[in-house]
């Protein structure tokens, strides 16, 4: 069974049939894609460097390593086989985001080639919100598709429904930044923790 840290809630989601939609559900508990990146350039957050133990769903514990360029070469991808993943992003206020292209998202969740890129609009991005906590670790949240769809229906977000539980948030970069800065609660339920990343403890070395 693939134990990628982003495949957190697939077991509790209704099966939708289409492989691309299922891959998106596995990644984001539903799917919220953003029409484009909210910033012109994605940057490396130096605070991400190091070894992290990913704890999610009560039993999904994995250790991943992130280098000084925000690249992980041991992210558990398809069949738990290590894959390379760039974890660059941007910061808005106190919130930090990892931005994944559809192709990167496929590798992050261990999906079949083309399963997500064939469905997600060209140029779209998937955004993972994270905040560092008092213990030195970080808490990460994935967008809630139902929140996004409800906000779109109320006219609070510009976007459209692409498929069952698949929302596309639209706008130019400035509009998307404003949404994330002023109304992140329309997309993220930060009262509910999705993933916890803790600094991995160094392995003990016995004295000679």
What attributes does this structure have?
single chain; 208 residues; alpha+beta; 7-stranded antiparallel sheet; 3-stranded mixed sheet; 18% helix; disordered C terminus
* Helix content percent band: 10-25%
Order of helices and strands: HEEEEEEEHEEHEEHE
Low-confidence stretches: 7-23, 25-29, 204-208
Strand % is: 25-35%
Total domain units? 1
Question: Structural class, please?
Answer: alpha+beta
Number of strands: 12
Give the C-alpha Rg.
17 Å
Tell me the major beta sheet.
Answer: 7 strands, antiparallel
Task: Tell me the distance between the termini.
Answer: 39 Å
In one word, what is the shape? globular
The number of helical elements comes to: 4
Average pLDDT reading: 80
| Arrangement of strands in the largest sheet | 3-2-12-9-8-7-6
């Amino acid at each position: 069974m693939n134990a990628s840290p982003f495949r957190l809630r697939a077991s509790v989601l209704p099966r939708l049939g289409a492989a691309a939609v299922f891959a998106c559900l596995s990644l984001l508990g539903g799917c919220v894609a953003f029409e484009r990146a909210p910033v012109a350039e994605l940057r490396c957050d130096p605070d991400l460097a190091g070894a992290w133990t990913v704890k999610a769903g009560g039993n999904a514990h994995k250790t991943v390593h992130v280098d000084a360029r925000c690249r992980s070469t041991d992210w558990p991808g398809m069949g738990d086989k290590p894959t390379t993943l760039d974890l660059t992003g941007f910061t808005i206020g106190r919130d930090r985001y990892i931005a994944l292209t559809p192709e990167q998202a496929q590798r992050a969740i261990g999906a079949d080639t083309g399963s997500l890129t064939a469905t997600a609009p060209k140029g779209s991005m998937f955004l993972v919100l994270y905040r560092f906590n008092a213990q030195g670790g970080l808490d990460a949240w994935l967008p809630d598709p139902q929140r996004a769809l409800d906000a779109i229906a109320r006219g609070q977000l510009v976007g459209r429904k692409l498929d069952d539980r698949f929302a596309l948030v639209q706008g130019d970069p400035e509009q998307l930044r404003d949404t994330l800065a002023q109304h992140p609660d329309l997309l993220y339920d930060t009262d509910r923790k999705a993933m916890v990343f803790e600094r991995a403890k160094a392995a003990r070395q016995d004295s000679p």
